[in-house]
Design goal:
three-stranded antiparallel sheet, elongated, 2% helix, 4 domains, 21 strands, mainly beta
């Protein structure tokens, strides 16, 4: 028998794994004024931005920057002040199976913040969760087809799979400027701090250039004009558009991700209103995803002649990658510690969520976690702001349809004050969720076919009892008969006629 094999080189991506690790990042800043001034740290906010990642064998170096925003009092303890500083960091994250040249996707989430002041210095700490996903592109020479020249003598079994390939398609930055009028009835003074989040919503263009447009949502915290009033938060939307040079393909899907890397905010008072000036730097990265169906040979045997045995190898395909975004609100009840003074007037509230569990439930995702909450208020009969820091459990459901194995992280979008009594406060927290779902499939592929001389076997009717779990294909292959020749013979037996 003259056996002709068809060989092809298959290029596919494999999901190597995910690693995560907590790391504490410390920053320091010099306080203005006298070193003898009394200082109280009210709240610390932090945003983490990754700037690069590099892989070596078994580990990866992740580089980034943490921007701190601090609310504090100094000297005059009735006046809330603000400070901003940043620090660069590099962290080595171990990941089994990692080698240079793999595609890496790093992320960083702020889970906890802390600030301490003394001797004219401010020491700031941020607890980050660094997550790293690794993908490897492999090439395999596989047997995809076989022919023997004799009609009906060679039987083959095939399999179909989906392969997903994803790659970075470029990035670009833009600086967006805008002005907003703040009505006098808000009673706001100078800007204390500003934070922003960006979302990409539309892709356009072609011929080697893609335009990405979206919206930046900026939240600005203002000092009140009158002492004793609550801090005022205003929300502003700014459109942005960025163009990225990249190669386009009709069969590929493009996905854009926008990230705010810097925010500058200032306000100028006029006769009847106050003008807010915003300057936001946004970075947009583009990824290209391609899915392709693969038709492969999985097994074969001949009815007569030499015995054919495939040489097989199991490979793992990365079949899909879904990124899902959602937002939802929840209410958190915060009781004051026994030693805290009673609440007279609430000034502001902040929250940082950390997910501890996420499980799919139909078309929704159930999540549980711990919320770091900061309350800033004026105690009864006092003009000096007081801060309470606590950690509260929370549970909520996000409108995300996912499967087992989904990976999710939450981040705070907005924290609003609700009903308040002297010993407790209610917060309404709007949280955002980023979830990633990866699909994988293991395939037994054929890399070669061996031939051994045919052994003598009896012809005629054969009665056989298949082993538990044995398929009809495996039984027919063992007997070297077509599957359709197997007939039920009672009590789980099969009868076949061997020519």
């Amino acid at each position: 028998m003259e056996l002709k094999l068809t060989r092809e080189t298959l290029r596919f991506e494999r999901f190597v794994g995910r690693g995560e690790e907590q790391v504490t990042i410390e920053g320091e800043a010099t306080l203005p004024g006298s070193m003898r001034d009394a200082v109280t740290v009210l709240n610390v906010q932090a945003q983490a931005h990754l700037t690069g990642v590099q892989a070596v064998t078994g580990e990866a170096s992740v580089r980034g920057r943490v921007n701190f925003q601090v609310l504090y009092t100094q000297g005059d303890l009735t006046r809330v002040r603000s400070m901003e500083t940043s620090c660069d960091f590099m962290h080595t994250l171990p990941l089994a199976g990692l080698t240079p040249g793999m595609r890496l996707v790093p992320c960083a989430y702020v889970q906890e913040t802390q600030g301490l002041a003394g001797s004219g210095r401010m020491t700031l700490r941020a607890l980050l969760l660094i997550v790293l996903e690794a993908f490897e592109t492999e090439k395999k020479d596989l047997v995809t087809g076989a022919q023997d020249g004799e009609t009906g003598n060679l039987l083959t079994r095939r399999q179909t799979a989906v392969s997903c390939m994803r790659e970075n398609a470029g990035e670009n930055q833009a600086l967006v400027r805008e002005e907003f009028d703040l009505p006098a009835k808000l009673g706001v003074g100078d800007v204390l701090s500003a934070s922003a989040a960006a979302g990409a919503c539309e892709l356009s263009g072609g011929n080697g250039r893609v335009g990405v447009s979206g919206t930046i949502e900026v939240r600005v915290l203002h000092r009140p004009q009158k002492t004793g009033n609550a801090l005022v938060t205003t929300v502003h939307e700014m459109p942005f558009e960025v163009s990225i040079d990249t190669q386009t393909d009709e069969s590929a899907q493009l996905q854009a991700q926008a990230e705010v890397t810097d925010v500058m905010a200032d306000s100028i008072e006029s006769d009847r209103s106050r003008t807010l000036r915003l300057e936001v730097e946004v970075r947009v990265s583009l990824t290209r995803s391609t899915q392709a169906k693969i038709d492969l040979l999985s097994d074969l045997y001949s009815l007569t002649g030499p015995v054919l045995e495939p040489v097989t190898e199991t490979i793992e395909l990365h079949t899909c990658e879904r990124h899902m975004e959602a937002r939802e609100s929840t209410r958190v009840q915060v009781a004051l510690p026994p030693d805290a003074p009673p609440i007279g007037e609430m000034l502001a509230a902040f929250s940082i969520p950390t997910l501890t569990a996420a499980a799919p439930s139909g078309r929704r995702l159930d999540a549980e976690g711990i919320m770091q909450v900061t309350l800033i208020y004026l105690p009864v009969d006092s003009d000096i702001p007081y801060a309470v820091h606590t950690r509260e459990p929370f549970a909520m459901t996000f409108p995300v349809e996912a499967q087992e194995g989904v990976y999710a992280q939450a981040y705070a979008i907005e924290t609003m004050l609700g009903p308040t009594t002297s010993d407790r406060a209610e917060l309404r927290c709007v949280l955002g969720l980023h979830a990633v779902q990866h699909g994988s499939q293991q395939l037994q592929t054929v890399t070669d076919v061996t031939q051994t001389p045919e052994t003598r076997q009896e012809h005629g009717f054969v009665l056989v009892w298949p082993a538990a779990g044995e398929s009809r294909w495996e039984t027919a292959r063992k007997l070297r008969v077509p599957q359709e020749s197997l007939k039920p013979a009672g009590r789980n037996a099969l009868l076949a006629f061997r020519r």
